[in-house]
Each structure stands twice: as structure tokens, then as C-alpha cells.
Specification:
The complex is a heterodimer of chains A (416) and B (73).
Chain A (H helix, E strand, L loop, with lengths): L5 H31 L5 H16 L4 H4 L13 H20 L6 H17 L6 H33 L6 H44 L11 H17 L2 H10 L5 H20 L6 H15 L7 H29 L3 H23 L18 H9 L8 H5 L18
Chain B lengths: L4 H34 L5 H29 L1
Chain lengths: 416, 73
């Protein structure tokens, strides 16, 4: 630890900040359905997820050792490049959180890394084939796999369950579904801790290696493991309520059987994909599972306008984070003052996004605010025809919320 | 570019089968218990239904345990 320069220290802190945004961005994956169906109280859910993330972070260091996975040629990496990549990923994570859209934190990180590496060493430092096989194809496959599994599982569970009519029986099955859902959500949290906290450990270790503090190929030091685990757990506990709301009740209205089917599908897809050698994004699997479960129930409705905005965000993740990463790398290339400017811009940008989020806060008290109103014909029709609510001023909307039909995606600000 | 279609297909297949099987088993378990809740005086048949329900849950617990094993390993 004794040879850590100021630049390295900045990179380590930025990596931990990314880890933190990763935590609160991805709480929704594990807990959105659990919160929206009422299986757990919002605060209890995020606390449970945070603890499991922390535990997960200490379970293994395998992912950390293979972090860049061949997308970027490590030899061309300088510490500044890693810093620029992290800046791109953090800003994209914060922006998608502000508009309440689930998007993959790992893709944001890859995007930032690609943009920064291209700016630093040219296009030759990127393996285009790896980008397609590791990012583009999984982005299409993940929601399809998880969605189809959740759809079939929802159909099946409703079918097996159709004879349950009297009050006592319904109560008993609802309790069962809740328990099952909590178990699946716990698995997702644990898997997230092992995967995503390790990505940060890998980044910090990579930075320490490129900075000459650690020998190449060494394991992450204990303080790196501990701080990465704590950062992701704190982020998770803070809860990305905006994203939880979109995923839990914005995409579709989930009932306990659907929540259980969706969460089980997500947990299965995540574990199957990471152990059969075809890695799929946790966020995309979970969103796909939620939509599949929405379609699986008779009369279930997926709000395609929200879903479309989410798909657009997925498509933009790589180029947007890449552009920011490239811009940041352009500045850091100019020398120490460039690094300082990027650091200032990062703090200012994050601060601005946070201030914007205060205009219409979403927290554990109103995370389910849009839930409970069935998506009837009118709501669905409005959702289908309402234009993307670009540029609507938020205070105006507040005055119209009392009408039940105001429960459309227009309820949530889509752009800044 | 080398797309590993076999891995993708196996992820697809395994996810589909395991999800549907688990959700099906668990639903059988909870509906079994729920039927029991309303027919407690059924006697022998009740015990059988309950045993079947617990067998379903045991399989689900085994699947979760395997999941945790996969995460740790």
C-alpha cells in the first residue's frame, strides 16, 4: 500500500464509487418483484439484499482474476484509461437511474473501457468479435431466455393453481409464493455480490498492477475485497428506488405467483448462464423475466412504452458510456490537469443528477405508488398511444396524479 | 468471431427446463398444503398429500442448495 500515488488513489476511490452505483442500480434485479408483490417490506428487502451482496463478495475471487475478459488488450492499459472508463460507467449508471430504467452496469463498464481504450490506443485495441459475442448477442438472448422461461412457468403455476378458490386456500398459497420468491431473490443477491463486487475488485487490482504496486497475476489484497464488498452492500442498501419501481410495477402488474415465477426464472438463468459458459446480464435477464411473467397471466399487460424505453437504454449503454469514457480519456491524456478536470466534471455531473432526482424523489415510501391499480382498458390504451413524455415538466404532472388514469408511464419523467 | 451456439442453446434449454420444473414442483407443494388446510379432517389422505407436498419442497430446497454451491464454487 505504500507506493500508492495520488492518481492511483483517485482510481481506487472512483472504482469504489462505481461499485456503489452498481449496488443501488442493481438492487432492483433481486428485490423489485419481492417489493412490488409485498413479499417483503421495502426496507427489509434492501437490507437482506445488502447483507447477501456483502457475503457474496467474500465467497470467491475467480471473476476478479479474469476481469477484462479479452475485450481490451491489457498491455495497452494505463491507469488513466481505467479512470476514464469508470467515469463513463458511473455517469451512465446515474443517468439511467435518474430516468428509472434498468440497464446493465457491466455493459456500462465495458462501454467506458472500450471508449477509453480506443481513445488511448486506437481501434486496434478492441476485439470487435468479442464485443458481439459477449455483449450484443447476450443482450438479445437474455430477455428472451428469461422471458420465455418466466412465461411458461407463470402459465404452469396458474394452471396448477386454478382449483384454489376458497379464502383459506388462497391465503395459504399466497404465503407459499412469498416464501419461494424470497428464496429466489436471495439467490440473485448472492450471485450479484459474487459477480459484480468482484468486477470492482478486478478493476482495482488491475489498476494496482498497471500502477506497479502489485505484481501481475496476484490476487486482490484483503483491503480491496473488503472495501469492494462494503461499497456494493451500502449501495444496495440505499436502494435504487426509481429502478425498483419501473421493474416491480412499471413494466407490468405483478401478483405473487408471477413474482415467484419471474424471480425463479431470473435466478435460474443467471446461474445457468454463468456456469455453462455463456454469460448473460443479470439486469437484462431480470427485466425479461418480469415481462414474461406479465404476459403469462391471463389478462396480464406489459407496458410496451416503458419496455421500449428500456430497450433503447440497453442499446445506448455501450455507445453512451463509451463516448463519455473516450471524452474523459481525451482529457486525462493531456496530463495531470486533465485528470483533475475529469474528476471535477465527474463530481459536478453526479451532483447535478442527484439534484435533478430531488425534484421528484422516489424512496421506500412511494416505491409501490403505481401498484394496486389494475391496468384496465383505458390505462392500456393511454399507455399505448401516449407519446414519449420528453421534456414534460415534473411539477405540472403532480397536479394530475389524483385521476386513476394518470397511472401511465407519463407519470415518470423520461428525460432530464 | 466465434459464437458459442452450443453454450447458448444449453443455457436456453437448462434455464427453461429448470425454471418450469422448479415452479411446477413448488406450486404442487403449496397447493397440496393449501388443500390440506381446508380438509384437515380427511385423515389418511391428508397425510399422503402432506408428505407429497414436503417431498416437493425438499426437491426445491435441494435445487437452492445446488444454486448456492454453484455460486460458492
Amino acid at each position: 500500500m505504500e507506493h500508492i500515488t495520488l492518481l492511483l488513489a483517485i482510481v481506487v476511490v472512483t472504482a469504489l464509487v462505481f461499485d456503489f452505483t452498481n449496488g443501488f442500480h442493481d438492487t432492483a434485479n433481486a428485490m423489485a418483484t419481492t417489493i412490488s408483490t409485498g413479499a417483503l417490506k421495502p426496507k427489509t428487502a434492501v437490507a437482506m439484499s445488502a447483507v447477501l451482496n456483502l457475503v457474496g463478495a467474500f465467497l470467491s475471487v475467480e471473476v476478479a482474476k479474469t476481469i477484462s475478459g479479452g475485450i481490451v488488450d491489457e498491455k495497452g492499459l494505463r491507469t488513466e484509461v481505467i479512470f476514464a472508463a469508470l467515469v463513463g460507467a458511473i455517469l451512465w449508471n446515474l443517468l439511467t437511474w435518474l430516468v428509472g430504467l434498468p440497464s446493465s452496469s457491466s455493459h456500462a463498464l465495458f462501454g467506458g473501457l472500450i471508449g477509453a481504450a480506443v481513445m488511448s490506443a486506437g481501434w486496434s485495441s478492441i476485439d470487435g468479435g468479442t464485443v458481439v459475442t459477449k455483449i450484443l448477442l447476450p443482450a438479445i438472448a437474455a430477455p428472451l431466455v428469461a422471458g420465455l422461461a418466466a412465461l411458461l412457468a407463470t402459465r404452469l403455476t396458474y394452471r396448477l393453481n386454478r382449483k384454489m378458490t376458497d379464502e383459506a386456500q388462497l391465503k395459504s398459497t399466497a404465503k407459499g409464493y412469498r416464501a419461494g420468491q424470497i428464496a429466489s431473490a436471495g439467490l440473485v443477491s448472492l450471485a450479484h455480490g459474487t459477480n459484480d463486487a468482484q468486477k470492482t475488485m478486478g478493476i482495482i487490482t488491475l489498476a494496482l498492477v498497471t500502477g506497479g504496486v502489485l505484481a501481475p497475476g496476484s490476487n486482490p489484497p484483503v483491503w480491496v475485497i473488503a472495501s469492494a464488498g462494503i461499497a456494493i452492500a451500502l449501495g444496495t442498501y440505499l436502494g435504487g428506488w426509481r429502478i425498483i419501481r419501473t421493474m416491480g410495477s412499471g413494466l407490468t402488474d405483478l401478483r405473487p405467483p408471477q413474482g415467484f415465477a419471474a424471480q425463479t426464472s431470473a435466478a435460474t438463468v443467471i446461474l445457468a448462464s454463468s456456469h455453462l459458459g455463456f454469460s448473460l446480464s443479470t439486469t437484462q435477464s431480470c427485466s425479461g423475466a418480469v415481462m414474461g411473467a406479465g404476459l403469462g397471466r391471463k389478462g396480464g399487460v406489459v407496458r410496451w412504452s416503458t419496455a421500449t424505453r428500456m430497450f433503447v437504454a440497453w442499446g445506448l449503454t455501450l455507445p453512451a458510456a463509451g463516448l463519455v469514457g473516450a471524452g474523459a480519456e481525451f482529457l486525462t491524456k493531456q496530463g495531470s490537469w486533465g485528470v483533475a478536470v475529469v474528476a471535477v466534471l465527474l463530481v459536478a455531473g453526479s451532483g447535478a443528477i442527484w439534484l435533478l432526482s430531488r425534484r421528484k424523489p422516489v424512496d421506500h415510501t412511494n416505491v409501490n405508488a403505481t401498484e394496486g391499480e389494475p391496468a384496465g382498458v383505458v390505462t392500456t390504451a393511454i399507455a399505448a398511444v401516449s407519446p414519449p413524455p420528453a421534456g414534460v415538466s415534473v411539477p405540472d404532472l403532480k397536479t394530475t396524479i389524483h385521476a386513476p388514469t394518470a397511472e401511465t408511464p407519463a407519470d415518470r419523467p423520461a428525460t432530464v | 468471431m466465434n459464437i458459442d451456439w452450443a453454450a447458448l442453446a444449453s443455457v436456453f434449454g437448462v434455464s427453461l427446463v429448470v425454471t418450469v420444473a422448479l415452479v411446477g414442483l413448488f406450486t404442487l407443494g403449496i397447493t397440496g398444503l393449501a388443500k390440506q388446510a381446508s380438509t384437515t379432517q380427511a385423515g389418511g389422505a391428508g397425510v399422503l398429500a402432506r408428505t407429497r407436498a414436503y417431498a416437493c419442497f425438499a426437491l426445491c430446497v435441494a435445487a437452492v442448495a445446488y444454486g448456492i454451491y454453484l455460486i460458492v464454487a
